[in-house]
Input
Amino acid sequence: MRVLHVHSGNLYGGVETFLLSLARFRALAPSMEMSVALTSDGRIARDLRDAGVRTTILGDARISRPFSVRRARRALDAVMESERPDVVVCHQAWPLALFGPVAKPRRVALVLWMHMAAGRHWLDRLAWRVRPGTIVCNSLFTASTLPASDARVEVVYAPVELQPEPGHVNASSRGDTVIIQVSRMEPLKGHAVLIDALARLRDREGWRCWLAGGAQRTHEAEYMSSLRARAAAAGIGDRVEFLGDRSDVRRLLADSDIYCQPNVEPDAFGLSLVEAMAAGLPVVTSALGGATEIVDDTCGVLVMPRDSVQLASTLSALLDDRGRRERLGSQGPARARKLCDPASQMRRIAEVLQKAAAH
Output
C-alpha cells in the first residue's frame, strides 16, 4: 500500500513530530510505503530525507495567490502520476482544502488526519467541502469537535519513542529540582500561568525551570519576550531558563524531575506529555482536551486551567515529596506504552489506511 502524506512543512510542531515518527517506525508496518509532499523545504523536509523517506517539495502555495496554488497542485498531480499512491493523507484543513481537489479526480482514497480540534475558520469550512472518505483524529477530544459528515471517523494515538535517555545530572541544574516544559511558544500552552505559579515559590530554594521550544513566527517571538519580562518582573528571571529550539529533548527530560504544561485552552492531544511520561517524569497539566485522555492519577496531576494558585500548591507539594514524584514517574512508562506503543500504533495506522483504501 503506497501512502502519500501531504502537509505544509513550514513550521515544526506536533504534525511534523508525527510525520517523523511514522518515518522512523515505518519498519514496524512494512505493508505501508511512505512518501511525503510538502509545500516548504524546511526542517521537517530535511529530517524526513535523513530518515530515508522520499520527500517532494511542491513549492510555496498561498490562497491569496491563486497562481501559486495552481502551480503547487500541478506539482502534486505530477507526484501522484509518478508514484500512483493508494491513499493520500492530508494533515489538517489547509492541505485538504488546497490539494484534496487534486486527489479526488484520480479516485484515490482521500484521508484527512486531524491533529487539532475542528474550528469554524473559513479555511475549515472550505476544507469540509472536499469531503474526505475517512477522517483520522489524534484523540477522542478531537473527534468530538468534528462537524457532521458521512466520512468514516477513526481515532488513532500517535506512535511515540518510548526508550528513555539514560539520566544524568546536567551541570546547569546545579543540583536543583528541575521543572521542565517542552512546547511551541504559543499562549495556549500556559507558559504564563507556570511563571505566575513559580513566582509564588520565589522564596523557596532548590528549584529551576527549563522552557524548551523556540519562536517560529513573529507573534511567538513577541510572546517569548513577554514571558522573559514576566519572569524578570516576578524576581525569578535567573531561575527560569529559555532553552530555545532543541533537538535533544529526550536528554533534557532525562535531566529533569517534573514535567509541567498548564494549558489554558484545550490541546488536541499532547505528544510532549507522553514523552515526559516515557522518561519517567510526573506530569502536571490542565484538565482540558486531550490531556485528560493521557494523564491520570497514577502518573500525574490534573489541575484547573488558569489557576496559578492551585498550580503553585501542586508544584510545591511535588518539590517537597521526592517519594511521590518517583512513584508517579515510575508509572509513566507503562501508561505511555499503553497509549502510544510504536508497534501497536503503527499496526493500527496500517489497518485504518488499508480500510480507507479498500473503500
Q: What stands out?
A: Residues 168-173 have pLDDT under 50 and may be disordered.
